[in-house]
Every structure is written in C-alpha cells, then in structure tokens.
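Input:
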Amino acid sequence: MNESKLHDLINSMTLEEKAAQMSQVVSSFLHEGSGEEKITGPFAGMEVANEDMSGSGSVLGASGADDLRTIQRAYLERSRLGIPLLFMADVIHGYKTVFPVPLALGCTWDTEAVEKSAAIAAKEAAAAGLHVTFSPMVDLVRDPRWGRVMESTGEDPYLNGVLARAFVRGYQGDDLKNDQSKLAACVKHFAAYGAPEGGRDYNTVDMSRRQLMEYYLPAYEAALDEGAELVMTAFNTVEGIPATGNKWLMRDLLRKEMGFDGVLISDWGAVQEMIPHGVAADNREAAIKAVTAGLDIEMMTPCYIQHVKTLVEENVIQEALIDEAVLRILKLKNKLGLFENPYRGADRELEETVTLSDVHRQAARDTAAKSCVLLKNDGVLPLRKDRNIALIGPFAESTDLMGPWSIFGAEEDVVSVRTGICGKLDIEPAVEKGCDIEVISFEQLEAAVEAAKKAEVVVLALGEHSEMSGEAGSRTKIKLPDAQLQLVSELRKLGKPLVTVLFNGRPLDLHGVIDESDAVLEAWYPGTEAGHAVADLLFGDTNPSGKLTMSFPHSVGQVPVYYNSFTTGRPHNQIPSEYRFASKYLDAPNEPLFPFGFGLSYSEFTYSNVALSSEMMEESGTIRVSVDVQNTGAVAGEETVQMYVRDLVGEVVRPVKELKGFRKVHLEPGETKQVVFELDEESLKYYHSDLTYTYDAGEFVVSVGPDSRNTEGRRFTYSPAIRVRSAVGEHTTRVYGEERF
Ligand code: BGC
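Output:
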C-alpha cells in the first residue's frame, strides 16, 4: 500500500478506531468467547476488549501459527476497515530454541553469533505468527543488584552499541515485507532504565544530561541507526518526568535529534503509572501527557481508549497528533506487508520444522559455549573423560537453565548438566543435589559428602534460580544463598579438586566460592543447550573464550563498580597507601574482583610489541595501533583483543579507559598474529559541558590488552585544526600539545 492510501485510510477512520490502533492488550483480552470474567486489570468491566475486538490494534504475548491466524481472521471479519492486528511479544534470547541470556550473549563479544541468535529467534517466532519482538534491550548496566542486568549486554556503551546493531540486523534483515522469517525489532527501554537508584527495579533514575548522552544513549542510537522499527519507553523518570510522558525525551531528543520516525510504544502500564508517579491526576491527564510526548501505542492500560476521542472533541489535543501516531502504526503494518497478507509468516508446518531444529540447537550450543566465562582455573580444567566425577549441587539435574525472559521455551527441551556430562563420560558420575537453592538439609549434605569422598573430582553446579533475577528481581544480597555456601565449605574440607559452575543472572559476590574452588566457570543461564555447552567446556572439547561485559565486585558494598570510571581528585593509586585522605575504601579495594573484559582460556595468550604508526594524529587522520598476540599454550584458542583510549586532559573529566575497539582472533598453539586497530578522531569525541560532541586537542593514551585491567599503553598527541568563531567570523586555527579549547 502506498503512503497516500494510508492517509486515505486514516481520513476514513473514526476517533474510536484511531484510539484502538493506539492501544495494545494481551491476547487473553481478545480471545473470542473469553468473556468479561476473563478481563482483569485496568480493562476490567470495559467494553474495549469486547466481542468485536475493536478496542485494540495490536496484541501482546500471544503466539502459535494456528492461534494467531484464528485471532487475526476473527478480528478482520468484524473489522470495518480491515486493518490487521500486529502481534508482538518478548522474544528476548530465543523463541523455543533458547539462547543464553543477553548478558551472556554479550560475553561472547561475537557479533556474528549474536546476529545469528537473533535471526534464529526471528525465524521461529515469525513462523509462529509474530511480527514484532520487544528486543533488543540495550540499557547500560552498572549495578548487579538490579535483576534486569541479565537482559542487557553490559556496562560499556561502545560494546552495547555494536551488539545492539547485531541484534537488530538478526531480527529484521534487509526486507521485512518480503522476508517473512524476520521480525521488527523494538529497542528498549528509552531511556536510562538501567540506572535505577539502589538497583531497585522501577525506581527513580536521575543523572546529568551529559551522562545520559555519553553512556546511556549510544546503544539506543546504534540500534536506531541500524533501522530498529520501534522504541519502547521506560518505567523510570528522566529529569524528574516519567519517560513515557517526557516531551523533551521523546519529541525533542528521540524524534528530532535522533531522527526516530518509527513506532513508540509504552512499557507495560507505563502510561497509567504516571498517576502513582505523581505527574498525572487521572487517566485523562496521563493520556494527554503521553500523546503530547509523542507516544503512539499505550500498552495494557486504558487511558487512550477512554480519553483520546473526547480529548480531540474538546480540543484539548489536536487530531493531527493522533493522526501522526496512527500513521506511524499503519506504516509499520504496511512495512511488514500485513495489508497484503495479514497472516504473514504464520505457518504451522514451518513452525514445527524450524523450532528446535538440529541446526538451531547446534547454534544455541555453540553460542552458549562462547558465552561462558572461565573465571579461575588452577589447572584442574579441562577434565579428563576417564576421571571418576561427582556432580553435586542444586543445578546438577535442574532444567531451570534458560533464565528470565524465555517465555516460549520449555524446560523439558533443556539439556541438564547431568545429561551433558554423561554424554562425555564412560563412567556414570555420582549425582547429588547437596542442597536446594536456598535451603540445605542434613541428609542432602551427607549424601553429597559421601559421593564426593568416592570421586576424584567434584563438579559443583550452583547458582540462583531464574526468579532471583529478571524483572522485579532486585536483591540487596548478591552472594550465593547460604545453603550453597555451606555446601561448598563442607566439600572443600575433603580436599578434592572442586570445579564450580555457576548459573545466575547477575555478577555475584563470590566470597565463599572463588577461593574455595580450584576452577570457576560462570555459565550464566545458557539456554536450551546448557548442559551440552557446559560439558563441551569442562572436558575441553571447546576452549573457553567468553569475557565479562560487566565487572564482578568483591562485595555488594562496592556497587556500582565499573571499569570506565573517573580518577577523582584523589586517586588512591597515585597517593601513598599510608595516606588516609584518598578516594578509597578502608575495607575493600576500589577495583572489582574481575574486571570488564576478563575471561580465561585453556590457551595462554602473550601480548608484545604494542606500537603506534605515529605519535601524532592529524585532523581527519588515523593512527594504526598494533600488537602481537601469541598463543603460548598447548591448545588452539580464541582471544578477544581489546583496545582502550584515555583522554589525559579533557574539558570535562574523562574515564580512565574507554573501549574503542576489539578483535577476536583464533590462534593455533605457538601461533602469533599481529592485531591492528585503526584509531580515528571519532573515537576521541565526547560530550563537552555544553553538550557538543567533539574532541580535544592534546595528549591521549591508547592501550591494548586481554581485559580492561591488564593493558599496555602508548601516548599520542591529537592536533587538529579547529574552527574558532570570533568577531571577524569563523576561521581555522591549529592547537598543539597541551593547549585545549
Ligand atoms: C517489561 C518490558 C516488556 C513488557 C512486555 C514489561 O514489564 O518491562 O521489557 O517488553 O513488559 O512484556
């Protein structure tokens, strides 16, 4: 359909029909014959989710080719204008073939793997009739108390941006209309949802505009630049105004400055939440604020459906604002080809063949293995397959390994650690639970100790159950539950080699685990193929290559702790340790236990010959940064070489390091490769105090290494010709060395 026809369509719509396009409800509201009694929550008792289903233009959370075809058919039969429904859902890290949680996907540092995981998710979900996924979630995260850190790819704006692009490419492909195995992507949660005070979900976010732009916006920008069709608002406030009704954030920043012209949808209930937030007195006022801010679709609350018509009739809101929102929604439906084929993609036979296919499972297994991070290895790993192993822990046989936001995955499809390990061994391992996730009994402990005594090596499968993270999964304690720590401590006393595998959704305080174990593998929630992937790593069939994308604190008291921090005016590492008045803790180091970028391998990688092609970068010029990386270990492996930059003297304070590039290299034993990065002035830019995005002339340090802590740096000078405005007009000048502008 061409755009002028869409305009004609809008001209023929009633205000009620327009408000319906702007409202979204869950599918149970729409099922034929579901009856008023099923309609709960804010829509209860309303005529909106009525028999002709006209109260909504899109549906949330339903899936399955047959079901969605039925809903669509019934809707269209009764629809006056024949505008099809849009089906949206949270396909976050896989559909039925569940991939690792996004924080783990981030730890792959592998854009191809991430893109492929999204493409597979889209393929399965599109065959099940879905059109839109509420992914990627690109909120930058620094506080592991927040349960939703597992939905993000981590603490770094650059890496989050690169991965956001990979997700969008994987979901959307190049042609949403003709490639029906793709989904439209909805980037969320705009903006800064990743920074709730105290790590408590839905809590206040308050940060400077400069911080917002520099750290929190880049990943949204990257996703939009890659073409993400939708944006979801955030629950939190931004500068004191809830994001969903924040006109500056949505109209000025997102629409005008960032150029977003797609569909803006609220988060679940976020329009009505403006009432408890205390910026709207009632649903009517909430609707006014949301429409004025430019929100196209209200998810799950009835402010639009109740008030849009009268607000226009009473001239409180111009109909043009409503038409603009409806046009964006219809354009999306049109882009997906729904006017030509309202059943786009929904195909039961295809759904049955593609979901959980061998190819998809294999991709999930490979990706899961890449996402696990080896935190410690005193030489006990990889395990020999002829060893007598005891597998102990609440996750030994658990299938709760998909993590939060895997709503379409089924536990019966998940490969447990036991199954994975048994597939590698000639002798069946002894398997004991040892304790439940949060409770331990004497009998459980005794059985575990007995099994461990007979074994040569103990593999401990520990962690958080998936409800302990995810939405509304905030915690003030980020250690493993006491029951599991007691289990570790008792087993440690036996003096057997202990290999701990962790399943969890956040960086943990590893007291009671890290020193007590001979090896620790952070497996996150690896998804459907969890057990296979973990076993591949434990027995060395796959060499670990994952690297952390979020720092692991020593303890919760250090939180937030992240690598790209400021030095402060009293840098603890530049002031003698006996001097008290430095920026430090009296009882803990400033640095995290494991920094951003950290992860071990069964290979050893040695870095040497860090060199710059020049010590001077000219305007629009580049510097080549090179380093030799050698695999000095005995097995082939993959290393992620990281490049960081520091601006030594900025107009505003600059972080001690900022990731500006990375490369993954595969190295055979003994092999050396030169890794080369091109550094240009784009990498030197940042937001200045007046919010201009530009660079400083002066001294910089570029450093490379295997993680954000262990890097080797070289200095260079950036000497651009800069434009200066003066009374006589604009002219170009050159500023050298220490001078700044
Ligand atoms: C979450 C969103 C999600 C939405 C729809 C909300 O509670 O914050 O991330 O997309 O629900 O399920």
